[in-house]
Design brief:
There is one protein chain. The chain has 4 helices and 8 strands. It is α+β, with helices and mostly antiparallel strands and 202 residues long. The protein has an 8-stranded antiparallel sheet with strand order 2-3-4-5-6-7-1-8, with helices on both faces. The chain is globular, with a radius of gyration of 16 Å.
Length: 202
């Protein structure tokens, strides 16, 4: 589901973003309690020399994911309305694993992007959150990226094989989007700083 609010409603969109993040985090916590043994949660924070608007635009370009996201073989938007976006994605680790699923995306411009996989044939759950916040010094040409992804598989065989690859993929994910932003917007305005990285295998 895609929701885009005008930039002149910044304070309202920030509030919506905060509430939406809390809702997603509660969902992740609930899944952990019920299906924790197969779950992997990855989170990372970085300060980058690009504005929230610049980062938001790149992450929101789901149709181009196959061009730069690690191991993404196919990214086709199947539903695109003023307030909705769904896409079919294919992630391949040939010859070991080939995953196809549908992602439903929500965007609150320019602060938040979330994606939820609704393909129950593969995942017990797959949730991704991108949050873009102003830096402590309110640098208009920089932002704090807060990225988190939580996933687990219905099939234990899928889970065992995927863990060999997805851990490295999610580690590369943030860098891939930052590199893409540099291709689109030019060199960063400041040196990138990695704030924290957390991986939990529950």
């Amino acid at each position: 589901m895609l929701q885009i609010l005008p930039k002149n409603q910044a304070s309202l969109s920030q509030l919506c973003a905060i509430n939406h993040v809390r809702h997603i985090q509660q969902g992740m916590a609930s899944n952990s309690a019920v299906k924790g043994k197969n779950e992997i949660v990855f989170s990372e924070k970085r300060v980058v020399g690009y504005s929230p608007e610049q980062m938001f635009k790149v992450v929101a370009d789901v149709e181009s994911y196959h061009k730069f996201v690690p191991y993404c073989r196919r990214s086709v938007v199947t539903l695109k309305k003023p307030n909705r976006l769904s896409a079919n994605l294919n992630v391949g680790f040939q010859p070991f694993l080939n995953l196809s699923y549908t992602s439903h995306v929500t965007l609150i411009e320019p602060y938040l992007i979330t994606a939820v996989c609704k393909d129950v044939k593969i995942f017990d759950h797959l949730k991704t959150v991108w949050k873009f916040s102003p830096t402590k010094d309110n640098d208009p040409k920089a932002c704090l990226i807060d990225f988190a992804v939580s996933f687990s598989f219905l099939s234990s065989s899928h889970s065992m094989v995927a863990r060999l690859f997805l851990d490295s993929v999610v580690r590369e994910n943030v860098k891939a989007f930052i590199d893409r932003t540099e291709q689109k917007c030019g060199p960063p305005s400041r040196e990138m700083k990695q704030k924290s990285v957390l991986v939990r295998k529950l």
